[in-house]
Structure formats: structure tokens, C-alpha cells
């Protein structure tokens, strides 16, 4: 499944952004969707996941309470609402689809990534 992330930009610390993850030509219904991010000079890290079916949500400790993941089934889109942004959130954000459970997606390595979106938190 090829996904495209969008909605990034430049925001001041404490600000908010909403990222979108869209698929083209296929439905996201059978997939759990995770958000990952990669900061300059750092490895890509898992951020959040929303499961298929019951739409359970999972978050990395670093974003718990500040980020909210959701999915809009009619629009075939997954969102990542990011509030109280910090400079440490600066990264390129990517989304990934997998038929696995969210708990497995946190530990998996993926070779093929879609287009990410740059988030820069700076004053």
C-alpha cells in the first residue's frame, strides 16, 4: 500500500499541526496505520498507531498526551493531531500500513516508505 503523508510545516513551540495520511487506489480498512518520524542524524522511530477494526490507539511515551491519532473511514484517511509541539518533535513524519497488530508494527522494520512530510518546531 502506497501512502502519502501531508500537512507538515513550520510551527512555534506550543503550537499545533494536523498531519494526514492518504492512500490512493486502495482502502485502508484492512490495515493498522502507524506514524513514524525521523529527525536529522537519528534513526526513524515509531510514534503512534491506530488499529484496524476497533480503532485502538497507541503512542510512544514521548508524545503520549500531546498527539492524537484518528481515522476517517469515508475519507480513507488517517490523521495525526499534534498539540503542544516541542523542538524535539522536529522531523520528517511518515505513515505506514500493515495488516499486523499495532504492537507488532512498533518493532518491525520497513524497507519501502512513501512520501513523508516535514515538521519543524522552532521560534
Task: Report what the structure shows.
- The protein has 123 residues and is mainly β.
- The chain is built from 1 helix and 10 strands.
- The protein has one helix at 102-105, and strands spanning 3-6, 9-11, 17-23, 32-38, 45-50, 57-59, 67-72, 77-82, 91-98, 117-121.
- It has a 6-stranded mixed beta sheet with strand order 2-10-9-4-5-6. A 4-stranded antiparallel beta sheet has the order 1-3-8-7, with no helix packed on it.
- It is globular.
- The model has no long low-confidence stretch (mean pLDDT 95).
Concise summary:
This protein is mostly beta strands and 123 residues long.
Features:
single chain, 123 residues, mainly beta, six-stranded mixed beta sheet, four-stranded antiparallel beta sheet, 1 helix, 10 strands, 3% helix, 45% strand
Number of helices: 1
What would you call the shape?
Answer: globular
Low-confidence stretches: none
Strand order of the largest sheet: 2-10-9-4-5-6
Task: Summarize the SSE layout with pairings.
Elements: E1 3-6, E2 9-11, E3 17-23, E4 32-38, E5 45-50, E6 57-59, E7 67-72, E8 77-82, E9 91-98, H1 102-105, E10 117-121
Parallel strand pairs: 2-10
Antiparallel strand pairs: 1-3, 3-8, 4-5, 4-9, 5-6, 7-8, 9-10
